[in-house]
Fold this protein.
Amino acid sequence: MTAVPVEQKAVSFTSKLSVLMKGTHGRFGGEAGEQWIAVNGAFSLHLDKLNNNMWIEYPGSHHSFWWNYPKLGKPFAEEFSKKQAKEVKIYAEGESQVLEALYESEDFPGLEIKSVAKLFASGIAEFYHEICNTSSKGLEENMYLLTSFGFFGNRLILPYQGHYVDMGDAYSSDPNLWDSAQITENWLFNKDRNVGCGICWDPSLKLLRPEYPLGLEHDLGRISGGAVVRTKTTVFALNTFAKWWDFRSFARKLRNPVVPMLDDHLELALGGGNPFLAGPLNAELIERKMVPLAGSLELYVQNGENPEWKVADMKLQREQDLSSVSYEFSHGEKQDPGNGESGWKVRAVYRGEDWVQERSALWLPQTEAAVVCGLEEGAAGPVYTVSNGILSIAAAPGFGSVVHSLKHEGEEWLDSSYPEVAPRSWWNPWYGGLGVDIPGMSGFSRQQEPRSATWAERVDVHGNVWKGLRMTTVIEKQEANRGITIDQHYLMLPGVPVLCVLHSVTNESGMVLPHYSLTDDNFIKPSPVFSEGWMEIPGEGRFLLGKLEAQLHSKGLLRIGAISRHNMLHVVNNYDNQSSSAYVNNKVFSHGVNHHLSLLNGGIAETQPTFLILGRIDLNPEDVRDLQKLTFASPTDEKETLHADH
C-alpha cells in the first residue's frame, strides 16, 4: 500500500489483512492477525496469541466462556500469560478439528506443555494438556497444573448444596455470590434466551476458585524423565444441549427420565417444603447465595377472596449473618369461618440492601377430617365414592374407567355422559369425566376389556398419606396393547381441596416399549351453562368456552372458572416431564397431560402427578412450585390397601 502526503514523497508499507469466512460445513484453520483459529462447521475455536486464552464462537450466540492459559506449580506460575507458543498445529482428527499449542517452561526447566483443544461440529469442545519432561531425570517433587476458565451467564443453573438451583439472572449468577466448594456435581449450565451452554469436568476433580476465574487442579505426580502425563479432559458445549437436564445427563453419563424442578436461589419454603403440613404455618426464607439476609422481610397471607394482610415485618441485621429466617403463623384465629376456603397464599417481600425480591407459595394444610370411601348402587352398577369433607369423587367401573363426578362444596366440575355412553362432538363413544387415553385403542375396544376398582393409599415424599380410588384396566383382547395393565389413581388428603391424579402402567406384553405414551383425558364443565365457563393460561389471557375452537398448550398451570361461580379449578403439572394442552369447541372442554414412559418387559412405570386444586384464590405459576416438586415412591415400593373389588 502506498500513501502520498501532499507535496511530500510517497510512503509505501505492507499490512497483512485477514478475515474469517465460515459457513455451516467444512473444516479448516490457520493464522488470522493476533489469533489462531480452528473451524468446524459453524463453530470456530480461537487462540489469542497475546494472552493464550481460548474461546468458542458461533453465529448469533453470545456467551461468557473462555479457557485460560495453563499454570504449573506449586506455587502456580503466570509465565504463560504472555509467553507465545513455540509451535501451533491445526489439523483434522476423526470428526474434530484439533488445535495444539506447545509451550516451553522457563520457571520449570525441562518441562513442556502441549495445550490441546478438539472442536466438533456439534458445538462440543474438549480441552486437555500434555506435560512432557524432556530431561532424562525425573522430578523430585510432585508437579501440579491448574487449568482455569471463565463461565458466566444471565441464568446459571448449578448443582449447589445438594439442590439444582436456578440463579435466575445475571446478578445472582455472578461467581462472587456462590461458593465453588458447594458445587456438588461436575457441571455448570447457562440458559440464555438464544443460547444454552455448559461445562463439565472429570468427577474426580474439585472445582476451585483460586482467583477471578474458576479452576481445576491436576496432580501430575513426579514425572519421570522423558515421560508424558495427560490431564483429565474438560468439555464445553455451545448450543448442543437446549435443556439443563440433558447436559447434566451427558456430564454424569447417567440418564434419568424424570426432570426435577429447580430450586430458587432465594426460596420461600412453607412447612419445610411440605405444602400440606397441618398445624401452624411455618414460613422460611432461605438465601442460598453467599450473602447474608439483611434489610427487612414482610409476610402477607391471603385466604379465599379476602384481601391479603400483613402478618410479619421483620428487621434483619447484617451482623446476624443469617442465611435463613423463619416465622410461625397460627391461621385459626384469622380464618373467616364463613369463607369455606381451606387454602392459603403466602407472599414474602424481602427488601434487601441491594434489591427487592418477592416470593409466593401455596399452603393447603390437612385437617382432622377423614377420607371416607363408600360403595353404593347406581344406574350403571356399583358406584365407588371418596370424600374428604370438601371434595368428593364418584366412579362406576360398569360405566367405564373414568371418574364421572368431581364435586367441590357440592358443585359439579366434570362433564360426563354417565350413566350411559353416548357420542359427543368428535368422540364416539364418549365417557367424559377424568380418564386416560391409551395409544392405539378406541373407546369401543376399551369397553371389551376387564375393568375393576379398588380403594388405594399412597405416601408422598413428605410422608403425607393420600387415600382414594384406583381403577384398573387389564388389556387382554386388543392385539396392539395386549399384556398392558393401566392403573388410574385419584387420591385426596383430609380436608384439602386437591385431587391428585396419578397413573401406572405394567408391561407384560413380552416386549420392551421405550416410547409408550399415556394421556390424561379430562372433560371439565365449570358451569351447568357451558357458555358461562372460561379458561386462562397465565400470560395468554382468558378464553371463553363455547365461543371458539382451539387447541392451546399450557406450561404447568391452567386456570378454569365460570362467571356464575366464585370457585376456580387450577390444573397443575410438572411441565419439564409432561406436555399439557386444552381443547375447546362449542360442545366440550377437555384438558390432557401427555406422559412419555419407557416400559421394560415385566416392569412398571409411573406418571408424574397432576393436581386439581379447587378454591377461590387466584394462583400463579410461582405459587405452585412445591406441588410440581412433589413425588411419590415407586409403586413397587408400596403396598396398596384393597378394601373392595368389582
Remarks:
- Confidence is low (pLDDT under 50) at residues 637-646.
